[in-house]
Amino acid sequence: MNIHEYQAKDLLAKHGLPVPAGIPALSVEEAVAAAKSLPGPLWVVKAQIHAGGRGKGTFKELSHGAKGGVRLAKSIEEVETNARDMLGNTLVTIQTGDAGKQVNRLYITDGVDIGKEYYLSMVVDRATGRVAMIASTEGGMSIEDVAHETPEKITTIVIDPAQGFMPHHGRSLAFGLKLSGDLNKQAQKLGKQLYDAFMALDCSMIEINPLAESDGKLMVLDAKMSFDSNALYRHKDIEALRDETEEDPAEVEASEYDLAYIKLDGNIGCMVNGAGLAMATMDIIKLNGAFPANFLDVGGGASREKVTAAFKIILKDPAVEGILVNIFGGIMKCDVIADGIVAAAKDVNLSVPLVVRLEGTNVEQGKAILNNSGLPIVSADDLGDAARKIVAEVKKAA
Ligand code: ADP
Ligand code: MG
User: Which residues bind substrate (predicted)?
Assistant: First the structure.
C-alpha cells in the first residue's frame, strides 16, 4: 500500500526526521488558509498523487502545463493561482503513464532555500533478504539517470536485522554522501531515525528525494512510502491512510472479495487458485504466443460468490478476449468449482470464449457438469492443452 507525500512526511516527522512545515488542502480556499498559517515568504504548492516525477510533469488541461505539479510561490496570491491551476486537472509524469492522474489534493509547504540535493531511500532487498539503504550525492529529479549512467555515485548499505542500524552504518551513509562536520553528524542521526521508522512501520520502501541541505541543515523535501500489506493488520492507523481513488478500481474491488488481482497488458483473462499456479499459467500463455490480461488468484476456498466476483472483474477489462480458468481442486472439490463456474458464467452472460482446466478431487464429476451445462465451455486436460486451446479460441473469435 502506498500513501501520499504529506502523510509520509507526517510519519517521518513523528520519528524525529527534519521535515519542513506543511498542510494538506482539498480546495483553493483550504490552500490559501494553509499558506496564511505558514510563515512564508516562500511557499511550495505540491500536487498529491501516488506517483513521482511531479516536478517535471505536465497538466493535460493546461496550455502552460509544462509548469509541473510542484511549484514555488512567492505570495499568497501565487499560492492561490497555482492551487486553482492544479486542482481537478490531470497531471502526467514519467510514472503515471499517458493517462495521468487527477489531482484532488495539494500540500502547501514551507519553501526551502536549497544548497544541495541528495538522495536517500530504503527498500527490502530480496537478494540479501535484508533491508538496504541507498544513498547518493546526486539527488533531485533525475536519480534514474544517475543509476544508469554513473552507478558508482550510489552507495548501498545492507543492514543485518539481528544487529540493527549500527554506528558504522551511519558513518558509511555520511561518507557516501560526502558530508563533513555537523552535516556528517546529522546524516548519521537521520539514517538511524529512518531505519527505525522503516522497521517500526513495516515499510517495504521509503524514498527521500531530495534530502536537501539548507543553511547547514538536512531536510526531507519529498517522501514516498509503501507498506508491506501483510503487516497492515497491526497498523490500523496506517491502513486508514489508504486513498482508494489512487488505486486501480478493479484492484480495489478484488481486494474487497479477498482476491489477489493485478491488471496486466494482454488479452487473456486468467482465473487460477494459488499464486504459483497463477504464475505458471501466465508463463504458459506467453509460451503459446499470447499475453495474460491479469494475474488473479482466487485463493484456497473459492466459493461460488468469489468465482462470480472474479469473472465480473475479469470481464470489466475491455482488453479481455478470452478467459482461461485453471483450478486445482485440492481442499475444494472440482464438482463444487464447476458448479460455481457454470453459475457465474450464466450470471455474467459470458460473451468471450472460456477454457476450463480442472484437476484434483472429483475431477470427472466436475468435467461432466461443465459438459452438460449447455454453455460453450471448452474443457482442457492439462495446463499446456488449456493454454493452446484458449489462444486458438481467441484467434478464431478475432
Ligand atoms: P517529484 O519528485 O514528484 O518531482 P519533489 O517533491 O521531489 O517532487 O519536488 C521536485 C523538486 O522541487 C525538488 O527536487 C526540489 O528541487 C523542489 N522542491 C520540493 N519541495 C520543496 C520545498 N519545500 N522547498 C523548495 N524546493 C522544493
Ligand atoms: Mg522527488
Answer: 273, 330-332
Quote the DSSP letter at residue 65.
Answer: G
Whether residue 162 sits in one domain with residue 140: yes
The number of CA neighbours under 13 Å toward the Cβ of 316 is: 14
CB within 8 Å of 276: residues ≥ 6 apart: none
Distance 55 CA to ligand 1 centre (A): 7
Q: State the residue range of the domain holding 38.
A: 21-110
pLDDT tens for 131-166 read: 999 999 999 867 888 888 988 999 999 999 999 999
Same domain (yes/no): 41, 96:
yes
Nearest-CA residue for ligand 1 atom 20 is 221
Residue pair 34/101 in contact (Cβ under 8 Å)? The answer is no
Average pLDDT (284-295) is 95
Q: Are 48 and 103 in contact (CB under 8 A)?
A: yes
Grid cell for residue 395: 484467434
Taking the C-alpha atoms of residue 251 and residue 264, their distance in angstroms, rounded to an integer, is 11
Which CATH number goes with the domain that contains 286? 3.40.50.261
Query: Among the three residues 59, 94, 110, which one is the final residue of a domain in this structure?
Result: 110
CB of 57 sitting under 6 A from ligand 1: no
- Whether ligand 1 lies within 6 angstroms of the CB of 71 is answered as no
Residue with cell 493488520: 233
117 marked as part of a ligand binding site: yes
Using DSSP's 3-state secondary structure scheme, residue 154 falls into: strand
Provide the total of helices (H) and of strands (E) in the chain, helices listed first. 13, 19
CA atoms within 13 A on the CB side of 218: 26
d(CA 285, CA 387): 5
Q: What is the pTM of this model?
A: 0.81
